[in-house]
Specification:
Blueprint (H helix, E strand, L loop, with lengths): L1 E4 L13 E5 L19 H14 L12 E8 L5 E8 L7 H11 L11 E8 L2
Antiparallel strand pairs: 1-2, 2-4, 3-4, 3-5
């Protein structure tokens, strides 16, 4: 289950406010020993997956968030699973249903397994 970490109340005025959701437990379709982690991170495949997610993210919009644009940061582990999502901007979404909707959509993304350390990819989204 994912959980939102609320920002500290002592954030200076004008500083970016970030909320993050992480996956506490992930059911992996294949064990790490059988997953093909011989390849480098496939940025092109990730951007294709994230572009589709950004289109789905439009369903998260409400009348109060129309014409809003923002950015999310998605961290992928070597198994190709998104393990955390931070809505980097706008900070006004922090703690809202819209933020949770965005995080759910981007946490559901998967990329081809890769070798090496976790990778963070940034993706913009916009609401019409």
């Amino acid at each position: 289950m994912a959980a939102c970490l609320e920002p500290k109340k002592t954030v200076p005025a004008g500083a970016p406010v970030l909320c993050e959701r992480k996956i506490a437990a992930v059911t992996q379709p294949e064990s790490p020993s059988t997953a093909d982690r011989s390849n480098e991170f496939d940025r092109k495949a990730a951007l294709e997956v994230l572009s589709e997610a950004a289109l789905k993210a439009r369903d998260c919009s409400t009348s109060a968030t129309s014409k809003t644009a923002g950015t999310v940061a998605i961290q992928y582990e070597g198994d190709g699973v998104a393990h955390s999502v931070v809505v980097e901007r706008p900070g006004a979404l922090c703690g809202t249903e819209v933020e949770r909707c965005l995080q759910d959509i981007f946490l559901a993304t998967r990329v081809p397994p890769f070798r090496g350390t976790p990778i963070t990819v940034h993706k913009s989204f916009s609401f019409p």
